[in-house]
Amino acid sequence: KKRVYLGTTSMDSELSIIAANQALARPGTLVLDPFVGTGSHLIPCAHFGSMTFGSDIDSRVLLGTEQNKSVESNFLQYGIRNRLLDLIKCDQSQQATWHHRPILDAIVCDPPYGIRA
Length: 117
Known about the structure:
By secondary structure, the protein is an alpha/beta fold. It has helices spanning about 15-20, 40-45, 60-65, 70-75; strands spanning about 30-35, 50-55, 85-90, 105. It has a four-stranded parallel sheet with strand order 3-2-1-4. It is globular and about 40 Å long.
């Protein structure tokens, strides 16, 4: 099934499933994608039962560019919207959000490499 909302740098679904497996995504876990983009990594994590949230520096990609096409619409398409906690606009290079106690079970991402496709 093709996702409703894709970007020019969206990760292949097969690689995203591998990342979700490596993250041990399952019910009762909390997964973050700090470079969420269109949600390629979080969708399989949510499919496997994880609660997910993501952040991105570009609010345009979080909100979507066309009517009813956004990261959230991808989760709605697969019936897993209840496993997307939130999307946050932020620059991860400037964040001091780390805690002394672990709160995340996994971080999955495809970090930017300074090149836009």
